[in-house]
């Protein structure tokens, strides 16, 4: 599974509408409204690297209201939830 974090700028008055449109795109697993330089963060999860192009510039970039985006592709995940699950299985 390939994960990308997409930081998105939009007009402040369009945040809820843009977030809903983004959440409806196949490959987008979560959308967060956030404070700071960006207005939204979308988490994209796809099976193959080539699919990122279909989802991010092909669909996210074309959503009306998306003014700018910056994409970060994850290469390793560190999750407390995952670590707790491993210890629950008795793995050392």
Automatic annotation (TrEMBL):
GO BP annotations listed = response to amino acid
Q: Which InterPro entries does UniProt cross-reference here?
A: Dimeric_a/b-barrel, Tscrpt_reg_AsnC/Lrp_C
In this chain the Transcription regulator AsnC/Lrp ligand binding domain maps to: 6-76
GO CC terms, sorted: cytosol
Fetch the Pfam families from UniProt: AsnC_trans_reg
Any GO MF annotation of the entry? sequence-specific DNA binding
Q: Which PANTHER family match?
A: LEUCINE-RESPONSIVE REGULATORY PROTEIN, TRANSCRIPTIONAL REGULATOR AZLB
State the name under which the record lists this protein: Lrp/AsnC ligand binding domain-containing protein
* Organism of derivation: Frankia nepalensis
């Amino acid at each position: 599974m390939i994960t990308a974090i997409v930081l998105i700028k939009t007009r402040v008055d369009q945040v809820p509408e843009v977030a809903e449109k983004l959440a409806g795109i196949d490959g987008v697993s979560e959308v967060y409204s956030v404070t700071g330089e960006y207005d939204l963060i979308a988490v994209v999860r796809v099976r193959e690297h080539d699919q990122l192009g279909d989802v991010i510039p092909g669909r996210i970039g074309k959503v009306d209201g998306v003014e700018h985006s910056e994409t970060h592709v994850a290469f390793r995940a560190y999750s407390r939830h995952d670590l707790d699950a491993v210890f629950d299985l008795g793995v050392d």
